[in-house]
Design a protein that fits this description.
Elements (H helix, E strand, L loop, with lengths): L1 H6 L1 H10 L4 H7 L2 H9 L3 H18 L5 H26 L4 H23 L5 H25 L8 H16 L25 H4 L1
Helix pairs in contact: 2-5, 2-9, 3-4, 4-5, 5-6, 7-8
């Protein structure tokens, strides 16, 4: 169960940062009970972390996790929570619109006054026009890039990152390493060569 929750963390984070609907991912990957719980929460990625922490605590209580492994898993979950918090701060703290508008107006004023300044020099009209075109192309391009960087999650390849996270989880939980020489078989454990990742993890 923890593997399913962890595998869709990247997808839910992508949907959260881009204001997209994540109900299909939740209902496909999680059980009905877990899906209802996650969808009722305001922040779906945090709900996943909470559910994974609940599973880890239960396994530790049953004695299936030693104290060192328990602390390591808790530290990793705290790191996921910290990463989500950083993403939320980036998303919730864009550059004020007035700053962007003022910068654009100042840039346009400078571009309109540039030909007049160059006209007072001894350069030809052709060079004047050429310099203004180059300056306008560079400065307007930088202004457009700065406006896009206000919302970095629209530019980042989050689709590929989320898919990579899911495949990494499949590699860690589904594809078990082969037994060492002399290692005894554990009752109920299948050989790593006989396990196959679910179809939705390999598409």
């Amino acid at each position: 169960m923890a593997a399913r929750h962890l595998s869709i963390f990247g997808w839910l984070l992508k949907c959260r940062m881009r204001d997209e609907d994540d109900s299909d991912v939740i209902q496909t990957m999680l059980s009905p009970t877990d899906a209802r719980y996650v969808e009722k929460q305001r922040k779906h990625p945090v709900a996943l972390i909470t559910r994974i922490r609940q599973v880890v605590a239960l396994e530790a209580k049953r004695g299936n996790l030693n104290p060192g492994s328990h602390r390591s898993l808790e530290a990793n979950l705290l790191e996921l929570n910290r990463i989500y918090g950083m993403c939320e701060r980036l998303r919730g703290s864009p550059v004020p619109p007035m700053y962007s508008r003022h910068t654009s107006r100042l840039l346009m004023f400078w571009l309109f006054s540039l030909p007049l300044s160059l006209n007072s020099t001894s350069i030809s009209a052709f060079v004047n026009v050429l310099l203004v075109m180059v300056a306008g192309f560079v400065t307007l391009g930088l202004d457009e890039i700065s406006m896009q960087l206000e919302q970095p999650f629209r530019l980042m390849p989050m689709q590929q990152l989320a898919g990579s996270v899911m495949l990494d989880v499949a590699d860690a939980f589904v594809e078990r390493p082969p037994k060492l020489d002399g290692e005894e078989d554990i009752e109920g454990e299948e050989s790593g060569a006989n396990l196959k990742a679910p179809k939705y993890w390999t598409d």
